[in-house]
Amino acid sequence: MAFIILGVLGTEGRLCNKTSWGMDGCRLLCCGRGYHTMLRTVQKKCNCRFIWCCKVECDLCEVQQEEHYCN
Ligand SMILES: *[C@@H]1O[C@H](CO)[C@@H](O)[C@H](O)[C@H]1NC(C)=O
Question: Which Gene Ontology CC terms are recorded (predicted)?
Answer without folding.
Answer: extracellular space
